[in-house]
Amino acid sequence: MDDCSTDNSLSIIKKMADDFDEVRFVAFAENRGQSAAFCAGFDAVQSDIVVTMDADLQNDPADIPDMLAAFGDGCEMVIGWRAKRKDTFIKRISSKIANAIRDGIMDDGVHDTGCSLKVMRSDLLRKLPRFKNMHRYFPILMKMQGVLIREVKVNHRERATGVSKYGTLDRAMAGIYDLIGVKWLINRHIEFTVKEKK
Fold first, then answer.
1. Lowest pLDDT segment from 2-6, 88-92, 107-111, 185-189
2. Could you say which of 15, 73, 131, 141 has the lowest number of CB atoms within 10 Å?
3. SUPFAM superfamilies from the xrefs (predicted)?
4. Which residues pair with 150 in a beta bridge?
């Protein structure tokens, strides 16, 4: 999935798609943000399982086999846990503050909601409510569907390319706005059990 990246990732993906029939891609006409990119990818995927990760080389693909091994046996989502983060000091502090606020308002029970390395069931992902920054709330949104989540400690590397857009004041304000909205969604969530139907 390419969200109009300014690096060379799209041309690399196109070359891979030419060389391997299994590789397909979706490229946006304009930048629409990470959540929109995820949703477009979820709609296009043809497998039962989705593995997500960023293209900035901070995630390590070598962690995927361990995450797939943790998937199944009732578990429908596996989240990467960057136990030893290689981010800047400011980004680590911003993340700690944001996580503390989020945990105080709604505890999703995971250590690292921000890690893009995740394994999830594609049919459940397509049922999630869609909104800007929804990717920050995948765990709680999946839990609303009764999903069992496991965490796997993963490697984390220093950013090799691109510039982080997180940690600025405008994003912090947007995060608070989103948090209020997701809390409302959780409180208004409908659950029911069908006794019988014809």
1. 88-92
2. 73
3. Nucleotide-diphospho-sugar transferases (SSF53448)
4. 78
Residue 26 is assigned to a structural domain of this protein: no
CA-to-CA distance for 13 and 24, rounded, in angstroms? 8
Q: How many domains does the chain have?
A: 1
pTM for this entry:
0.83
Query: What pLDDT, on a 0 to 100 scale, did the predictor assign at position 170?
Result: 67
Among 46, 8, 47, 4, which Cα is nearest to 29's?
4
Residue 44 lies in a domain: no
Using DSSP's 3-state secondary structure scheme, residue 14 falls into: helix
Q: 95: domain range? A: 50-187
Is 60 exceeded by the pLDDT of residue 166? no
Tell me: pLDDT of 125 over 90.
yes
Tokens of 166: 């997180």
